[in-house]
UniProtKB/TrEMBL annotation:
SMART domains referenced in this protein's UniProt entry, alphabetically: Transket_pyr
Protein name: Alpha-ketoacid dehydrogenase subunit beta
Residue ranges of domain Transketolase-like pyrimidine-binding in the record: 5-180
Keyword Transmembrane: no
Protein species of origin: Streptomyces venetus
Coiled coil regions, renumbered to chain: none
Superkingdom per UniProt: Bacteria
A matching Pfam family: Transket_pyr
Length: 325
């Protein structure tokens, strides 16, 4: 039976199921236990599973990830929470120097099933270092899987798949979508973790996005439909690896592509998508691949973030520019 729940609740239920099904699964992070996390994503888990399974850690991100690496080497499956996106950088060295490379260094003999949960993105009026979108920094590093759900159902199943993966997974949670509700069926059979999904079919142009921007792209498609334009919305779901085959299939049908993400456009994931799709679909494209994202500037104070983040008008402008070719 499917239940309607918020994205944050879906992650909570997914973590609960993982803790129940495998006693090697541990949850670690700042305030994840008694408080249940600042967004209450881990609410009630320490009460039900104990302080040895849901562990409140010191405020030391490098130590949290380093400890998780050691636990994974001993056969555990740690799920680490980084409290906010901007707090991950003290752990960046551990993630990219150790976590990402152990598998390759050991010629596949060592597996590191660590999930690093990171609430990310803006739109909630937070203070400095609480609204970053650093996914491209991690996607550049071989050995890491990078995913981001856009809805509660995907959040539930993608977390299950991330925990079961023998490779380290960086799980970016779109904090502005934590309270968006959708149906979740805990008995459904999920699709592949890194497979993109068409969430709205169309014929005139493809909008590709992931995480917090998928909902915006659906709103853009609704607005464009009022003018007779049929836009296809593709939820990428994964930033590394990227499902280029699904993007290509969509673009070969629509012949136009606009990539949308909150992170800065400069050296963002949209740049890699634009380059690859231009190579793959050169003779199908009727317009250059366009990108809409954040500016190449530090994330601004909360009162200015709506000027910084992609919005309906900015994405519609890119759609109009593409269709004008």
């Amino acid at each position: 039976m499917a239940d309607k729940m918020a994205l944050a609740k879906a992650i909570n239920e997914s973590l609960r199921r993982a803790l129940e099904s495998d006693d090697k699964v541990l949850i670690m992070g700042e305030d994840v236990g008694k408080l249940g996390g600042v967004f209450r994503v881990t609410d009630g888990l320490q009460k039900d599973f104990g302080e040895s399974r849901v562990i409140d850690t010191p405020l030391a991100e490098s130590g949290i990830v380093g400890t998780a690496i050691g636990l994974a080497l001993r056969g555990y499956r740690p799920v680490v929470e980084i409290q906010f996106d901007g707090f991950v950088f003290p752990a960046y060295d551990q993630i990219v120097t150790q976590l990402a490379k152990m598998h390759a260094r050991s010629l596949g003999k060592v597996k590191l099933p660590v999930v690093v949960r990171i609430p990310y993105g803006g739109g909630i009026g937070a203070v400095e270092h609480h609204s970053e979108s650093p996914e491209s920094l991690f996607a550049h590093v071989a050995g890491l899987k990078i995913v981001s759900p856009s809805n509660a159902s995907d959040a539930y199943w993608m977390m299950q798949q991330a925990i079961q993966s023998d490779d380290p997974v960086i799980f970016f949670e779109p904090k502005r979508r934590y309270w968006d509700k959708a149906e979740v069926n805990p008995e459904a059979i999920p699709g592949p973790l890194h497979k993109a999904a068409v969430v709205r079919p169309g014929t005139d142009l493809t909008l590709a996005a992931y995480g917090p921007m998928v909902k915006l792209c659906q709103e853009v498609a609704d607005a464009a439909a009022e003018e007779g334009k049929k836009l296809e919305v593709l939820d990428l779901r994964s930033v590394s690896p990227i499902d280029f085959d699904s993007i290509q299939a969509s673009v070969e049908k629509t012949r136009r592509l606009v990539v949308v993400h909150e992170a800065p456009v400069f050296f963002g994931s949209g740049a890699e998508i634009a380059a690859r799709i231009t190579e793959r679909c050169f003779y199908h494209l009727e317009a250059p691949v366009l990108r809409v994202g954040g500016y190449h500037a530090p994330y601004p104070p909360a009162r200015l973030e709506e000027e910084y983040l992609p919005n309906l008008d900015r994405v519609l402008d890119a759609v109009d520019r593409s269709l004008a070719y």
